[in-house]
Amino acid sequence: MIVSSLPTLILACCLLASIHSLSGQAQTGKEQLKSDILEKGFVLGINLTNRGGGVYFHYIKGDARRQWVFGLDIHSVRDERETSIQSAFGDSGKDYIYGKLNYFYVFTPSVGIQKNLIPVGYGNLLNIRVGAQIGPAIGLLNPYLVEIFEPVNNSPNNGQGYRIVVPYDPTEYSYNEIIGKANLLSTKPSISAQLGLSLRGHILIDFTHSPQYIGGLSIGLNADYFPATIPIMNESSEQIENQQLFLAGSIGVVFGSRSQ
């Protein structure tokens, strides 16, 4: 799982930053920034999920001690047990994912706050901040489409027929009827929404050690929870159980400025 090692990475970054900070205080450093210094910054990054991913944008505004964070995240979610199989139609068909019912995307506007853990100044080599955000998780489901062989005059043995595009339903269509995966835009989109709750925690590492600029990395972890299970896969296939909780790790580039 991509996100499984993320908390360990965050902890390691914190420990490393603390060591550098303590050693830096033995040196002659700049004074700590005054609390009335205004800060504005942006974070552009990527979200990483099981075999999926997405992007996010965060805006930071506040003073040298704490800042408000406004975020906009979107990422796709795929089940780790999604497996492509070969079409029964051989070279005339296309591979498709056995048991997949829906594409699933999570869209999350959020707001939160971050505070300085290790402030700028006093010889610190790094400025470390931690933050948390909350917001609605808007889950968007779009059916997984496949091409089906429809025989002429309902006579499958004459080999004559045509292709139709339908949402994949393993209980209705057999392996011998499915030609393969269809293009997502083959038919008019049929999107349904699920509303849940999103929580996000992050650590921001500012490398600049500058009274004028902010620049570094932001590492985070998202948890999106929905009151009902999300039907990504057919639960009757290979004892697959759909989930309500989805985790996504993230990493982004931070840039911004400080001013009086």
SSE diagram, text form:
Layout: H1 6-24, E1 38-49, E2 52-63, E3 66-77, E4 84-85, E5 96-97, E6 102-118, E7 127-143, E8 145-151, E9 161-167, E10 178-181, E11 192-206, E12 213-225, E13 245-259
In short:
This protein is mainly beta and 260 residues long.
Task: Describe it.
There is one protein chain. With 260 residues, the protein is mostly beta strands. The protein has one domain: Porin, CATH 2.40.160.20. The chain has one helix and 13 strands. It has an eight-stranded antiparallel beta barrel. Strands 9-8-10 form a three-stranded antiparallel sheet, with no helix packed on it. A two-stranded antiparallel sheet has the order 4-5. A hairpin with a 2-residue loop joins strand 2 and strand 3. The N terminus is likely disordered.
Helical content class:
under 10%
Give unreliable regions as ranges: 1-8, 14-30
What's the total count of β strands? 13
Biggest β-sheet: count, sense, barrel?
Answer: 8 strands, antiparallel, barrel
Number of helical elements? 1
In total, the number of domains comes to 1
- CATH fold naming: Porin
H/E element order: HEEEEEEEEEEEEE
CATH level 1 class label: Mainly Beta
Average pLDDT score: 82
* Proportion of residues in β-strands: over 45%
Keywords:
Porin
